[in-house]
Design brief:
This protein is mostly helical. Helix content is 71%, strand content 10%.
Length: 99
């Protein structure tokens, strides 16, 4: 374990987590807390005692969230680009009219 790695208890097991560039330990611990919370929600909903299956379902759920965020981000970028292009076009037209 390197100097920046740390241990946390997840689902009753001590796990060694590597440091993540750009994140402080408190931020990584918050992420781990979200993982634990997600697993607990899935376990409560589906009544699955298998920790491996719960971990996979939690990872899948986070992946779906990430995918949706990426899609939303791309849509927002496209909309922003269209707005910028429209503004540039109007400015160019306005400049032409002033000549």
């Amino acid at each position: 374990m390197s100097g920046n790695d740390f241990e946390a208890k997840v689902r009753g097991r001590i796990i060694k987590f590597p440091a993540v560039d750009g994140l402080m330990e408190i931020e990584v611990r918050a992420i781990i807390g979200e993982v634990e919370e997600k697993i607990a929600k899935i376990e409560e909903k589906l009544k699955i005692p298998d920790t491996s299956k719960l971990a996979i379902l939690a990872a899948y759920d986070f992946a779906v969230e990430l995918y949706n965020l990426k899609q939303k981000s791309e849509t927002n970028q496209e909309a922003d680009s269209k707005k910028i292009d429209d503004i540039v076009s109007r400015l160019e037209k306005s400049m032409e009219e002033k000549k």
